[in-house]
């Protein structure tokens, strides 16, 4: 799929989430950064992030590493938090009349409707489509990066009458993926950009002069609003521009927003994993009974390893203070696929489980983390007990 082919789905925003948060501001007669901790505001952040999560989940290929999808989701959550901060700050500023008095509630709500329409309908439509485009291109970059410079990379527009003239000048730019041009001008290069970059056989097209390519890219994004798009979503694993003005918040507000987003991301990640295993654990017959579990047939010829609901519950409930807790929730969805490719490294006894031994397997093919599985072996068979991540 290309950015030009991407669906034009319109996000369905929960307007009540915004009006409830605005009503909380009315009750307080002001907006302050610590209001980001209020349940109405946390709900608004989750509702906003949920829109972007739908865009990411619907357009990221299943074979892409969880590292990528997790990083994109995390970025979308933080973006949502600062986005909510600015929209509610604007609501707070609208509380007062020109002479400094609190507006009547009816007038205040008209302003709230206007601000909601601006942020959560007009802006959100463009941001949703950008999330789709960034996700597609970030996923594609992973394969481009894996292939290295054995292929060239060529910039292409959608090729129709709607292409911006400055983007048209970049069409056909052909350079190796390692060229610095792609760190700044890998698509999308603006709101509504439908450009793409495709791998082409080396030597099929002449290389563009790197200096000329960079100059054209600079000209394409020369004004202040365009310059923030000078980044590569696949390299930086970010959906939205790191220099987006939403991130320009007062210093005292930034840690509050970041902490609230982290907490809400944890809650959402747990809910996502629970929903995922309930929908995806296959139902099988075990003797006279039915059970929901994955069956992993190991290449070593030993008995299969089973993954049950208890494994996912352990992932959720243990080591919550671990800094890799949230990515571990995302990686747990791949356990049934990676375990059969993992290498057995040792066997351990356990004082807590005297009736069992534990086989330790290690999966090293992920780019960022070493994944370690512990398999409990006893009279009930071989059952995946736990999984840990370790930064490489």
What this model shows, in words?
The chain has 392 residues and is of the alpha+beta class. It folds into two domains: 15-256, no CATH class; 281-391, no CATH class. 46% of the residues lie in helices and 17% in strands. The protein contains 13 helices and ten strands. The protein has a seven-stranded mixed sheet. It has a three-stranded antiparallel sheet with strand order 2-1-3, covered by helices on one side. A hairpin with an 8-residue loop joins strand 5 and strand 6. Helix 2 runs antiparallel to helix 3, helix 3 packs across helix 10 (254-280) and helix 10 (254-280) packs antiparallel against helix 11 (309-317). The chain starts with 14 loop residues before the first helix and ends with a strand. The model has no long low-confidence stretch (mean pLDDT 93).
Shape: flat
- Spatial extent as radius of gyration: 25 Å
Largest sheet: 7 strands, mixed
| Beta-strand residue percentage | 15-25%
Number of strands: 10
Q: Write out the strand line-up for the largest beta sheet, numbering strands in chain order.
A: 4-5-6-10-9-8-7
Mean pLDDT value: 93
What's the helix-strand series? HHHHEHEHEHHHHEEEHHHEEEE
**Helix content bin:** 40-55%
Q: What's the end-to-end separation, in Å?
A: 32 Å
User: Ranges with pLDDT <50 over ≥5 residues?
Assistant: none
User: What count of domains describes the coordinates?
Assistant: 2
Task: Give the topology.
Elements: H1 15-28, H2 39-59, H3 66-93, H4 105-147, E1 151-156, H5 165-168, E2 174-175, H6 181-185, E3 196-201, H7 210-220, H8 224-227, H9 233-236, H10 254-280, E4 283-286, E5 289-296, E6 305-308, H11 309-317, H12 325-331, H13 335-338, E7 343-349, E8 357-363, E9 369-378, E10 381-391
Parallel strand pairs: 6-10
Antiparallel strand pairs: 1-2, 1-3, 4-5, 5-6, 7-8, 8-9, 9-10
Helix pairs in contact: 1-2, 1-4, 2-3, 2-4, 3-4, 3-10, 3-12, 10-11, 10-12
């Amino acid at each position: 799929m290309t950015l030009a082919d991407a669906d034009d789905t319109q996000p369905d925003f929960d307007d009540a989430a915004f009006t409830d948060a605005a009503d909380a501001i009315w009750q307080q007669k002001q907006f302050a950064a610590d209001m980001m901790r209020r349940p109405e505001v946390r709900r608004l952040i989750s509702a906003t992030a949920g829109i972007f999560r739908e865009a990411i989940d619907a357009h990221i290929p299943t074979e892409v590493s969880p590292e990528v999808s997790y990083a994109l989701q995390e970025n979308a959550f933080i973006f949502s938090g600062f986005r909510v901060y600015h929209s509610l700050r604007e609501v707070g500023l609208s509380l007062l009349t020109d002479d400094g008095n609190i507006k009547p509630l009816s007038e205040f709500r008209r302003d709230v409707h206007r601000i909601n329409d601006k942020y959560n309908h007009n802006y959100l439509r463009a941001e949703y489509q950008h999330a789709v485009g960034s996700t597609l291109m970030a996923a594609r970059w992973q394969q481009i990066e894996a292939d290295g410079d054995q292929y060239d990379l060529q910039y292409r527009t959608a090729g129709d009458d709607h292409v911006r003239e400055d983007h048209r000048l970049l069409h056909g730019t052909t350079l190796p993926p390692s060229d610095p041009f792609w760190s700044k001008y890998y698509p999308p290069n603006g709101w509504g950009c439908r450009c793409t970059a495709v791998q082409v056989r080396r030597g099929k097209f002449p290389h563009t002069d790197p200096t000329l390519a960079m100059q054209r890219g600079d000209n394409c994004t020369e004004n202040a609003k365009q310059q923030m798009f000078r980044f590569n979503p696949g390299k930086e694993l970010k959906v939205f521009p790191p220099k987006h003005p939403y991130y320009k918040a007062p210093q005292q507000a930034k840690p509050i927003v970041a902490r609230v987003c982290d907490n809400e991301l944890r809650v959402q990640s747990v809910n996502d994993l629970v929903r995922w295993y309930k929908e995806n654990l296959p139902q099988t017959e075990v003797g006279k009974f039915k059970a929901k579990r994955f069956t992993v047939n190991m290449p070593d010829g030993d008995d299969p390893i089973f993954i049950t609901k208890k494994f996912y519950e352990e992932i959720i409930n243990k080591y919550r203070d671990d800094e890799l807790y949230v990515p571990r929730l995302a990686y747990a969805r791949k356990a049934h696929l990676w375990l059969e490719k993992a290498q057995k490294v040792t066997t351990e006894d356990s004082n807590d489980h005297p009736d069992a031994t534990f086989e330790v397997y290690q999966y090293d093919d992920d780019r960022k983390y070493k994944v370690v599985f512990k398999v409990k072996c006893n009279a009930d068979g071989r059952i995946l007990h736990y999984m840990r991540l370790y930064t490489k």
